[in-house]
Amino acid sequence: MKYRIRRVYLENAADSRSLSALDAALLPGCPETSENADACAWWLCEAVDDEEDAEAVGYCGARLLRDEEPGAGAAYLARYGVVGGHGGRKLGQRLLRAATRWARVVGARELQTYTIDNPPSANALIAVGYRQFTSPWAIPGEGVSYWRLRL
Fold first, then answer.
1. Which residue among 68, 87, 139, 151 is least enclosed by CB atoms within 10 Å?
2. Is-contact 45 91, C-beta < 8 A?
3. pLDDT class of 29 with cuts at 50, 70, 90
4. Bridge partners for 148 per DSSP
5. pLDDT digit string (tens) for 69-94?
């Protein structure tokens, strides 16, 4: 099986449906595709068969933090994940690298995100250079880890 990462846009109905389906599969009970979905740059990871039919198996979304938000000047990794059955192929790392390239192009000084009790995501973040930090926008709760990649 081959995989491809491609930039997608919410204006494309099929891509928007794929992002929503991945959100429901990977983050059940969370608000649909993020409260700032329209401000995000999005990528899909697709499994492609020999006939070039594609199935969305992972996604990533990032946005610039606004001036009034803590961490202004940074980019925020809003969503990222790969569905089961496709893990272990470094697809998450490929998605993270796509977001990192975008963040550099738009002039962000760093990328920030968090995980909640999610070792596979934390390991992928570490593998591409993220390190834990104390966040100014801390979310209350157990098991929350904050991550930053300086660009």
1. 68
2. yes
3. confident
4. 112, 131
5. 767 789 999 999 999 899 889 999 99
